[in-house]
Design goal:
This protein is of the alpha/beta class. The chain has 17 helices and 14 strands. It folds into two domains: 188 residues, Rossmann fold; 155 residues, Glycogen Phosphorylase B (Rossmann fold, 3-Layer(aba) Sandwich). Helix 6 links the parallel strand 5 and strand 6.
Length: 414
Amino acid sequence: MTKKTTWIDLTDFTIWRGSHTGTQRVVYQITRYIKDNENVRFCSFNYLTQVYSEVSFDVVFKKDSSISTSTKSNKFEGKVTLKKAYSLFAPPIASRVIEKIRDKQKLAHKGNKQDLRIEAGFNKSDTLLVLGGNWDKPGFIDALEAVNKQNIAIVHNINDLIPIFDKGHVSSDEHVRYEQYMKRAIKLSSKLIAISEYTKKDIQKYCKLKNIKCPKVYVIRLGDNPVGGDSKKPVQAPENYILSVSTIEVRKNHALLYYAYKEANKQGIVLPKLVLAGRRGWLTGDLQYMLTHDPEIKGKIEIIEGPSDQELAWLYENCLFTVYPSFYEGWGLPVAESIQYRKACLATSSTSVPEIAGELIDYFSPFDPLGCLRGITTLLEKKYRLSQEKNLKKGYRLTSWEDTANELVKKLLI
């Protein structure tokens, strides 16, 4: 009798370049703890060749060239890239240039069902687990449907439905594309995974709005493990600073921190330097312009772009506290990571974030820079900050990534 195998899709991780964001971190941390399970195998979809094939965990995480999609294959190499557009053009023009570049890239890599090949050794009654964010990979959803037709059960993780319910903070080209993917993914999935109760409610809300039968949704809590091994000080790290970790994109709401610092300057409040740690993202051209050219703020807010895991660990270990102003989240991994380092955190009161630590940390509205400033000045009082750290050590139950992986195995019966 053939054993039932759980296949874990690693597409999102295998083609990623640069430092990991939340999605890649989740995929890596969960799979590393279940990779040795005898019933687990791995697969990856190459959207350039339209081939879905089996891959080795070890090869994948060494980013072997034979299974990775190299950025050098981009047909637009040498022309204006998405990253270059921000620096070459004024912010309003950059956004229009980026839209055109993305349109060209989508056409160049558009999936063709006739070219689709399923080469992974799926057997009937196997399960395919999709943890990553593959909605933007041309042809990927077609590949999932083809696999499902082979009597393979699809279990799909959904981190959030932000491009559906928070359209104002994502690029317009994602609105239709993301929803089309999610609608098809939900319909073909036998089970869904959500990373928060808030995301679960969003999934159920969406299914009701679109009259889609909602599969059973399992909520798993993400891990709080340290982000790296031995810490390493970034070259440009200051000595006394507040830390905010996330991709620098409009939804993360770094503009609120800018206005909080402007208000502090107006009131004569001297604040420590603010470090924004993360790769540069999208729709923040205006903010980056202001940070560069505003004489009142220049030197007070510093971007450390794409820190390594070891550098990020150092930044967590040595900051005064962290602040997280995001408008909309599926979870809020930097909040959990901050608490793991027993650092007080001032966080947005929006969406899923209060699920992480409840009343153990302070909150503010993501629409209220004055409220954020009040929270910052309160945490700058050493006695209060130390009491917050003490409460976290006493009252916060850490979740390891191994705990997360074991919960997933238990709920999916891997």
